[in-house]
Amino acid sequence: MKKIAVIGTGYVGLVSGTCFADSGNQVTCCDIDQLKIKELTEGIMPIYEPGLKELVHKNVRKGSLKFSANISQEIKEAEVILIAVGTPMTSSGKADLTYVKQVARSIGENLNSYKVVVTKSTVPVGTGKLIESVIREYDNGKHPFDVVSNPEFLREGTAIKDTMNMERAVIGATSEKAFQLIAEIHQPFTENIVKASLETAEIIKYAANAFLATKISFINDIANICERVGADVTKVSAGIGLDSRIGNKFLQAGVGFGGSCFPKDTAALLHISEDCGYDFKLIKAVIETNEGQRVQLVKKLLQALGSLQGKTISVLGLAFKPDTDDIRSSPALDIIPYLTEQGAIVKAYDPIAIVEAKKQIGYQCTYSEDIYETITDSDACMILTDWQDVKTLDLPLVKQLMKQPLIVDGRNLFELEMMKQLGFTYLSVGRPAIQSESIISKAFTKN
User: Fold this and answer.
1) Cα separation, 71 vs 295, whole angstroms
2) Whole-prediction pTM value?
3) 40-66 residue pLDDT tens
4) Residues 81, 107: contact at Cβ < 8 Å?
5) Is 261 a known active-site residue?
6) Which residue among the candidates 19, 29, 30, 261 is catalytic per the annotation?
């Protein structure tokens, strides 16, 4: 059992800390936000993540997990200190290390014995050495410590499963002693340990996310070609995904990637490449394609309706993906304001993310947790998040509720033949358009 202090109670910190507690360690999750700590102590979760609340309650009752705003004291008592604070993207695309440096200073000021300082936050190459220098500056070289880069690879919506059943643990350590200690606390989660230098571990996380983002943008570019030549991108994805060298994951065409990782990490990797004098043309194209996918989806809606003025548009999905309330870089954040600017009346559905969405876009639309209420009397329906409730829509009922049967699907949820038989105008991504005879579209008439 190790005494672990986790500094930062966001997705990474709270999930990682809870899972380390569940595997037999004594963990304190710390934050400067005293209200957040108070609510966590009362069992109120700051994020929605399936299974997290139950696991937190279990380990609090067991005594292996607690919460504290007294960061100085927890640093002194810990053997391992995990840095899990935010590294938001600046306007230039660079990762903002303000919070990381603040934590490093606190560690240096409170170092009283040998500690292993672990960076869980996604940080640019060189951050580990920066943390080391800041700690030494404020400790005045009085106490020994080691710095480790241990990036996380959890996915929102499956974060507990991804932590408890890691495909691999990447450990970039400044000493063998530190490597062995961090490898030991990961043994309950995985046998696949990647031993690396600090710099190598730091870039592994960026490289992994950038590669996955590249697959998404690649298949979206293929989808845009498919639309122009009459092909079906879902069949293309299936065909190439069966190649073991390629695989079928992250080859689903749609409205593009969002969330807390891919947009931020691709931008940060581009900035890293620029800093070291390399023109990373591929990642530039990945970002450009992703930004363009939202525009492509709105164009389909405009082509079908001609004008959005006075039209009622139902938007299904505010979160960037299902099973999370995270709306960072969500397609809805760009699309809803555009629709309202064009004179549309927007009604938005989401089962979890409404509170977070309101913080970003306010009342530019009306909100509902009732999917059929959202759809009622709409001129068109846009699907942006593949929630289970959206996947299992009663489509005959949807057709009855809408003013006209027009669906613009950014997630390719439904079979084309079925939508044709049901009488919808159905515009998806990278697949032939299905048009209802009841909706006259100038664009399709010309074709």
Assistant:
1) 45
2) 0.89
3) 999 999 999 999 999 999 999 999 999
4) yes
5) yes
6) 261
